[in-house]
Please model this.
Amino acid sequence: MKAKYILFIFAALFIVSCEMDYDPVAVYSDVTEGVTEDSLQVEFKDKAAVLEHRQTLLNLYENGQEHWYLDVLLLAEVHADNAYAGSPGAETTPFEVNSIEGSNINLKRDWNAHMANVAQTNKLIENIDEVNDPALTETEKNQFKAEAKILRAMIYFDMVRIWGNVPLVTKQAGDITSETVEEVYPAYFPPQTDALTIYQQIEADLLEGLEYAPENDPANKTQLSQSVAKALLAKVYAEKPLRDYDKVIKYADELAADGFELVEEYGDLFGVVLSDPNQPPSNDNRAIDATLRNSKETIYEAQYFPGNTNWVTWMFGRPLEEWNANFTWLKWITPSRDLIRAYESETGDKRFEQAVVFYEADWNLYYPADQYAFMYKTRSAYNSIIKLRYADILLLKAEALIAKGDFTGAAAIINQTRQRAGLNDLPASASASEESITEAYMKERRLELAFEGQRWFDLVRLNKVEEVMNAVFETDEGRPDLVYPFTELSYILPIPQDIIDQNPNLVQNPGY
Model:
């Protein structure tokens, strides 16, 4: 009987590994495996092996553009009111019309990629203390473990906001043998953990990571620094399960003390340097670099250079480094008329031209072909992908002040981002009531952070999904018909059905 049980598990694990491109059983390799004096196998044989795996972790965001960025925009912008699907299909249209099901392949690849990334963080966290190499100091061990915990928290923060109850895996699974099968099995097929417990683990990882992570390096914003932990803590404490607006304010203020502030020119965050800035882009006048990396506003970003470029740019519009490349097919994340009207209602808003661009296209699905709208914030292969920036956290402080009844203080923060955008301060009437200042705040976050993966999560966090999304289909003539109305059950998405089929301990989210 036990032999059949083992065969079942190995068969299931084979399926999982095929789907994830990651084999959880093959935890040892010739590169990393070491042997102690007691003939016990260890993951990292020396400091060099640790450094190699640490670099893998530091590169996860840079290399995971599909699940860290592309699919997040599909959810946060298309499933909200900022964008249309762009290229209709089974991958994209369900996000646009609220008909997402567990069979959606985007959700499957995102779940698999996130869980594989969690496994990579656990590998370092669980094994680094066992490395017997005098060259690896205790200080380094503490730092590298702290970085891995911050990264694990970041991954789980995305997962819990997308799916709610997800498996909480903080231990590395061991080898499966006839003697260990009953003990090890749950590590490969874990049940879901309630969202509150997931948030508590995120909080614990960030607080522990904060203690030993490196300080912010103004010259390198790709590091998992103390400031990254502070920014994530501010975002975590704004969410309902652990909501503590005093702590949102605390960590926003600590980031300011770390030296973060708004850059003077909003466009520097997303612009590129052209070979001749006085001429429009063309194949003879290509983008040659990002305008600015490691800005004083960026907290965490992925950076791209010649030879290691940002491939997702051609998914959204024209890649400015190759003007005519990959511009013969419909693009994802098409700016909505509703968003464009929001920008146009603020005359002179500099953020509009940084978020949306109009080109002549060969198609006219959402707009006339001669004036077609495209997302513009990721416009070349050299654009950084900014995961965390100070404007987001600063505005979360305004949200906290609103919750505490300080409408004037919230308006003062909102005016900071408005002034940079070339706009006048809010009128006095905007801070006259909680309703009016909340409306101004939601609009400001929308215009400031459009196409940065925030809008859907803002609507969910502030219980605005039904109010906003069920109404926008009546006012935005560019949208196809809504399939299902938005309800509280829409706040989280379905768990991929293939994952449920592989793991009998998982239960589908209500409503799907």
